[in-house]
Design goal:
Order of helices and strands: HHHHHHHHHHH
Number of strands: 0
CATH class: Mainly Alpha
CATH topology: Urease accessory protein UreF
Helix content: 55-70%
Shape: globular
Distance between the termini: 34 Å
Number of helices: 11
């Protein structure tokens, strides 16, 4: 990877990117409320299962397919996998999360003046757009290698989950970093799975997570939007 691509990737995969990622827990706050996550060990168990059963089986593979669709200039495939991702958000807050972040990333790209022409080429990005679709378009326009982009997306998700735990379990800062380090092999394996999973094996079957998300929608005293 050349320096320019690496720097673009570091910027657009950062949790500090102003698209609202820090304001979502993706069901984790409900798990904290219910006592399913309450210390470092239970936090790690939550992240491992989420990583291998959701991110590696659905979110990651769909991002990988979107990356390849943008590279091939296959607008039909972009539309197909974008629609599949939106349809897989089975609670109102999870759908609102990806649409809000996708919209914010699209607007940020326009305001920064990078890759704007690539975004304007896709009418789909003017409608409700998921975060993976907007991210894949940016990756393609900025000439970022796909494998690194996928791994960065998975790491960004994991880092955000760790930050939620640091603030809400609470875990110490060192414990949070230790948790990130301990999941390196899991991240690598999830990325391999996401790249190699055939279409017929894709699955977003996670009823427990869906239930937690629905509970979170009516949970009082929330810090996070999902």
């Amino acid at each position: 990877m050349n320096a320019a691509s690496l720097l673009h990737l570091l910027q657009f995969a950062s949790p500090a990117l102003p698209i609202g990622g820090y304001s979502y827990s993706q069901g984790l706050e409900a798990a904290l409320e219910g006592g399913l996550v309450h210390d470092a060990a239970s936090a790690r168990a939550w992240m491992v299962r989420y990583l291998h059963e959701v991110m590696a089986q659905w979110d990651g593979p769909l991002l990988w397919r979107l990356l390849k669709a943008f590279e091939a200039r296959d607008d039909a495939a972009v539309a197909l996998w974008s629609e599949c991702f939106l349809a897989s958000r089975d609670t109102a807050e999870l759908r609102a999360e990806t649409v809000q972040m996708g919209y914010s990333l699209t607007r940020l790209i326009a305001e920064l003046g990078v890759a704007d022409a690539q975004f304007k080429r896709h009418p789909l990005l003017g409608e409700e757009v998921s975060l993976p679709t907007a991210f894949a378009c940016a990756v393609d326009a900025l000439d970022i290698p796909h494998e690194e982009a996928l791994l960065a997306m998975l790491f960004s998700w994991l880092e955000n989950q760790v930050l939620v735990c640091v603030k809400s379990v609470p875990l110490g800062q060192v414990a949070g970093q230790r948790l990130l380090l301990s999941l390196r092999a899991d991240l690598e394996q999830a990325a391999v799975t996401a790249r190699t999973l055939p279409d017929e094996a894709l699955s977003n079957w996670s009823p427990g997570l869906s239930m937690l998300s629905m509970r979170h929608e009516v949970q009082h005293g929330r810090l996070y939007r999902s």
